[in-house]
Structures are given as structure tokens and as C-alpha cells.
């Protein structure tokens, strides 16, 4: 399927956008914003698409590595979703474009032992930032590896060239500057989880902190 033709892309509507009016779609403790605040740890990496690589490995039958051209040849989708940051802002009605996480799962075929997913980011500290999610969260029908937001390529500030979007969790649970997806048997808390954030990150339960 051509990635150039937006009309050919399926659109996935996140179930959280169907909770009701704007108030009903805003988790407790959150404030709505029309802006998209930029928050991250350390410096923003500048990653050229020509050198970007995505490694997918761990507990799977067909580990692989994708370059930008190969990533763009995968089936592309649009996801209409809301996003919620642990720092208490929410932005409704976003449209992300990219490759669904289910398409990635279908490609590499995780083994039965794969119960968790560790997302690796090419960013501080020392290019080794990670975050962790259970397999069922990563495989949600509204989850994707996003390359664009509202028809514009993701900027470096927002995790470009590719970031993970998991709409039903706080936004940090989707890694910016994605460089590797690792399927694991055991849970492995990432940078923010080790530093006090909640291991699960459900905004509707206000799972902000782990203490």
C-alpha cells in the first residue's frame, strides 16, 4: 500500500475518545491544552532518517532491523486519540500516522514467553532510556509507532523520526526517538519507573507515582 495516499490508510478511533464530552474524556487531575508541551530528560537527539534504524528482538521468532525506507513500506494507519501527560496536561483529538504495533507483532511473531515489551530510546542517559509495558498494552488496537502528528512529520522535540504512542496510558509510556523494541519474559522497569513513576501509568487511575 502506498504511504503517500492518505485516503488509503485505515483510521483507528481510540475507544477513550468515545467516553463522552470533553469533560468525560479528561482523566482526573488533568487540565486540557490545545498546545503540545515539550518535556523530556536531557538533550533532544537529532536523528537523520537516512541513518535511523529500528531493531526488534528478544523473545520472538523473527527478529529484524528496519531502516526508514523499510519502515515506510509497512502498512500505515491513522490513529485518532487523546493523549495524557503525567505532568497533568491532556490534549484531545490528535491524529497520529505510522505503523500499528500489531503489524510489528505480526512480523516478528513473539514467542509464548513474551509477556512484556521494553522500548529503547536513542536519548539520554547515554542513549539507553527505556520504558516498559505489558504485552497486552503494547498490542492495543489504537497503539502505533508514529512518524507524523496531524499530517506533519514528528519533530525532534516530540520524538521524531519515530515514537511509540499508547493512548490509554500516560504519554511517557510510549518512547520518543525509538531505536529498539525488545520482547521480554520478565518485566523490566525503565528510566522513569526506576526513578519513582508508577510502573503501569493508567491516567484514569491516576497512577502517577510508584510510592
Give keywords.
211 residues; globular; seven-stranded mixed beta sheet; 10% helix; Sulfite Oxidase, Chain A, domain 2; five-stranded mixed beta sheet; 12 strands; mainly beta
Question: If you had to describe this structure to a student in words, what would you say it looks like?
Answer:
- This protein is mostly beta strands.
- It has a single domain, classed as Sulfite Oxidase, Chain A, domain 2 (Alpha-Beta Complex), CATH 3.90.420.
- It is 10% helix and 31% strand.
- Strand 5 and strand 6 form a beta hairpin.
- The radius of gyration is 16 Å and the shape is globular.
- The model has no long low-confidence stretch (mean pLDDT 95).
Briefly summarize what is shown.
The protein is 10% helix and 31% strand. It has helices spanning 68-73, 101-108, 135-138, 191-194; strands at 11-13, 31-32, 53-58, 64-67, 77-84, 89-100, 116-121, 129-134, 144-149, 152-153, 163-165, 178-184.
Overall pLDDT metric: 95
> Radius of gyration from the CA trace?
16 Å
How many individual domains?
A: 1
Largest sheet: 7 strands, mixed
The coarse silhouette is globular
CATH class categorisation: Alpha Beta
The second-level CATH architecture is: Alpha-Beta Complex
CATH fold-level label: Sulfite Oxidase, Chain A, domain 2
* CATH fourth-tier homologous superfamily: Oxidoreductase, molybdopterin-binding domain
Report how far the terminal alpha carbons are from each other.
47 Å
What would you call the structural class? Answer: mainly beta
Number of helices: 4
Amino acid at each position: 500500500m502506498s504511504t503517500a495516499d492518505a485516503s488509503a490508510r485505515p483510521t483507528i478511533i481510540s475507544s477513550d475518545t468515545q467516553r463522552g464530552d470533553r469533560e468525560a474524556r479528561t482523566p482526573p487531575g488533568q487540565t486540557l491544552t490545545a498546545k503540545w508541551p515539550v518535556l523530556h530528560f536531557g538533550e533532544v537527539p537529532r536523528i537523520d532518517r537516512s541513518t535511523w534504524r529500528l531493531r526488534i528482538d528478544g523473545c520472538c521468532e523473527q527478529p529484524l532491523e528496519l531502516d526508514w525506507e523499510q519502515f515506510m513500506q509497512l502498512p500505515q494507519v491513522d490513529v485518532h486519540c487523546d493523549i495524557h501527560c503525567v505532568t497533568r496536561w491532556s490534549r484531545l483529538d490528535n491524529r497520529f500516522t505510522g505503523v500499528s504495533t500489531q503489524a510489528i507483532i505480526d512480523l516478528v511473531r513473539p514467542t509464548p514467553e513474551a509477556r512484556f515489551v521494553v522500548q529503547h530510546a536513542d536519548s539520554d542517559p547515554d542513549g539507553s532510556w527505556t520504558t516498559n509495558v505489558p504485552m497486552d498494552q503494547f498490542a492495543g488496537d489504537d497503539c502505533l509507532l508514529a512518524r507524523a502528528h496531524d499530517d506533519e512529520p514528528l519533530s525532534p522535540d516530540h520524538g521524531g523520526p519515530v515514537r511509540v504512542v499508547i493512548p490509554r496510558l500516560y504519554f511517557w509510556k510510549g518512547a520518543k526517538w525509538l531505536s529498539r523494541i525488545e520482547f521480554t519474559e520478565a518485566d523490566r522497569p525503565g528510566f522513569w519507573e526506576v526513578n519513582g513513576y508508577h510502573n503501569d501509568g493508567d491516567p484514569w487511575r491516576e497512577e502517577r507515582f510508584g510510592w
